[in-house]
Specification:
This protein is mainly α. The protein is built from five helices and no strands.
Length: 156
């Protein structure tokens, strides 16, 4: 039977953060800035978004003012959502730097959701740039140099 480690025993030394994981961290930061900027750009481009929405078939009882108000509210909601996603990206990217395997998995799921939303909700070139950064940041976490840094959990 093995003895549990003493509480005062020093923790085993952590391996250095692999280069792909470090690059991924910086790509996540860039993706967050670009993603929030993309939704800010959509908000600044509100008149064009409203005109695009007015061109779509709609119920004749819905007025242009109502469409404009709805677009305005949704753009602000999406901007707040982008900030929340950016904070989640940064949190889990930070945890991935610690070698937390579940953080890598969460980032992968968030990246997939982000790509879908960025491409569907009022797309623009800034959002597509954010998608490219998200894909690159996620891919860095799965490169061969980064895989050993995210060990599988031992089976019980």
């Amino acid at each position: 039977m093995t003895e549990p480690p003493e509480p005062d025993a020093p923790a085993p030394p952590r391996p250095p953060v692999p280069q792909p994981v470090r690059v991924s961290w910086y790509l996540w930061i860039a993706a967050c800035v670009v993603m929030v900027s993309g939704f800010g750009y959509s908000l600044a481009d509100e008149p064009r978004v409203v005109s695009l929405m007015l061109e779509q078939p709609r119920d004749p009882r819905v007025t242009a003012a109502q469409v404009s108000a709805g677009v305005h509210a949704s753009l602000w909601q999406f901007l707040v959502g982008a900030v929340v996603f950016a904070l989640l990206f940064l949190l889990f990217a930070w945890k991935a730097q610690d070698g937390t395997r579940s953080a890598r998995s969460v980032l992968t799921v968030l990246a997939g959701a982000t790509i879908v939303f960025q491409a569907v909700i009022y797309p623009n070139w800034v959002k597509f740039a954010a998608c490219a950064l998200v894909v690159a940041a996620t891919a860095c976490l799965y490169l061969p140099g980064a895989r050993p840094y995210f060990p599988k959990l031992p089976k019980r």
